[in-house]
Automatic annotation (TrEMBL):
Positions of the SET domain: 7-242
Example of a GO biological process term: methylation
UniProt xrefs under SMART domains: SET
Catalytic activity: L-lysyl-[protein] + S-adenosyl-L-methionine = N(6)-methyl-L-lysyl-[protein] + S-adenosyl-L-homocysteine + H(+); L-lysyl(4)-[histone H3] + 3 S-adenosyl-L-methionine = N(6),N(6),N(6)-trimethyl-L-lysyl(4)-[histone H3] + 3 S-adenosyl-L-homocysteine + 3 H(+)
Keyword vocabulary terms for this entry: Chromatin regulator, Cytoplasm, Metal-binding, Methyltransferase, Nucleus, S-adenosyl-L-methionine, Transcription, Transcription regulation, Transferase, Zinc, Zinc-finger
EC number(s) from the headed UniProt entry: 2.1.1.354
This protein's name: [histone H3]-lysine(4) N-trimethyltransferase
């Protein structure tokens, strides 16, 4: 395949940012800028049996691979389509049995190696950027990231060396893992549940902004990039690499840690939303700056503790952890403060897992409006929250509230996902069923 480019856009050298993507024509809000099939992808283990391994379709009547009995498919065509990638994993899973447990990144990298061996020409995923052009930032990695890289390389050798002849040497693997970690994407469903990991080279070409003018959504294993602001000819096309809920300092820390650059976008220089995001409770005696600083430190620590605790605490213990942290932070922070919202969101997730629908609804109601203030317009985070809340309301026979919430989700999804997306059709059907 020749370098045919992407109609209406061009690769260019962006001042202070390196290569980037810019518009050659007008794009209206909701318009598809471009679509990019995954160069390589992998379904997360937790979704096996619920989604097709090849096309990521969600359905109940999937059938499993007769050899490994782990991968599920829509039909014979999907199974055949996936076989060039699955055969490697199929043999490895049969060999290791219950001990087969490589990380998702290791699984993805093994597939990239296989793809590179059979692909000599530019692929439809690389119209503007080749995978081998990905930045690795190896020179900026700290010892912790380097150790994680080496652990992944060791796991790749352990699980796949018998099945992939002549693996690349460790130096090449170190670079490839670093490239995937910096440029990989998480494929998510309409409620932002994790479905898998993938690389989309052309999507990775876009630079970051905390006030992005496009949004990336997924139709199966294809990434779709749509305008969420009007884009004029000559303007750079910006995606967001991170969750935009948090204040400027937090976003900058995350971008520097994960992507090795300091953001200078308008939102980061003006900090226009920081005051609302860090709202302090109205008290007769306002807290001192040191008290606020101390509470922010506590909040960041408890967020990290909760992330680790998910792996070993019971749901009831996790919920108690959320409630205690909310009680402590609530002495200073308003309910609309993003650190409060973070822990409410975690609590809502635990309630959903425990099938405590009323508890989940209670947290969702506190979250949804502040989300719509803190996030940019047409945010998937806001849409997914209205969607979860709407489905909860309907499940609890609160029909009017349910339909209202689903309609708010739909208004965002029609822009972010496009009016012809199957997720949009599903939500429309849910609304119609209530009439």
């Amino acid at each position: 395949m020749k370098n045919e480019g992407i109609e209406g856009t061009e690769r260019f050298l962006s001042p202070d940012k390196g290569r980037g993507l810019r518009a050659l024509r007008d794009f209206a809000v909701g318009e598809l800028v471009f679509a990019c099939p995954a160069y390589s992808y992998v379904l997360t283990v937790n979704e096996r049996g619920a989604h097709c391994e090849h096309c990521f379709t969600r359905r109940e009547d999937l059938f499993k691979c007769g050899k490994c009995k782990q991968a599920y498919y829509c039909n014979v065509d999907c199974q055949r389509g996936d076989w060039p990638m699955h055969k490697l994993e199929c043999v490895a899973m049969c060999t290791h049995g219950e001990n087969w447990c490589p990380s998702e990144t290791v699984r993805l990298v093994s597939r990239i190696i296989m793809k590179q061996r059979v692909t000599t020409e530019r692929t439809p995923s690389e119209r503007l950027l080749l995978l081998k052009e990905f930045e690795s930032h190896l020179d900026k990695m700290d010892s912790e990231k380097d150790e994680m890289n080496q652990a992944d390389i060791a796991a790749l050798h352990y699980f796949y060396s018998k099945h992939i002849s002549d693996l690349p040497d460790d130096q090449e693997l170190t670079e490839l893992f670093a490239q995937v970690n910096c440029n990989g994407f998480t494929i998510e469903d309409e409620e932002l549940s994790h479905l898998g990991s993938a690389v989309f080279p052309d999507v990775a070409l876009m630079n970051h902004s905390c006030s992005p003018n496009v949004i990336v959504t997924y139709k199966g294993t294809v990434a779709e990039v749509r305008a969420v602001q009007e884009i004029n000819p000559g303007e750079e096309i910006f995606n967001s690499y991170i969750d935009l809920l948090y204040p400027t300092e937090d976003r900058k820390e995350r971008l520097l840690d994960s992507y090795f650059f300091g953001c200078q976008c308008t939102e980061c220089t003006t900090k226009s939303k920081d005051k609302a995001k860090m709202e302090i409770r109205k008290l007769s005696s306002p807290p001192e700056p040191e008290e606020i600083k101390s509470m922010v430190h506590y909040a960041k620590n408890v967020i990290e503790e909760f992330r680790k605790a998910k792996h070993y605490k019971t749901p009831s213990e996790l919920l108690e952890m959320c409630e205690l942290s909310l009680e402590k932070m609530g002495a200073i922070f308003a309910d609309t403060n993003v650190y409060m919202l973070h822990m409410m969101y975690q609590a809502m997730g635990v309630c959903l897992y425990m099938q405590d629908w009323d508890g989940a609804m209670s947290y969702g109601e506190k979250i949804v409006y502040p989300y719509s203030v803190h996030y940019p317009p047409y945010s998937l985070n806001v849409a997914s929250m209205y969607l979860k809340l709407g489905r909860l309301y309907l499940g609890l026979e609160k029909k009017t509230q349910g339909v209202k919430a689903l309609k708010k989700a739909l208004a965002i999804m029609e822009i972010a996902h496009g009016k012809d997306h199957h997720y949009v059709a599903e939500v429309k059907r849910e609304i119609e069923e209530q009439k």
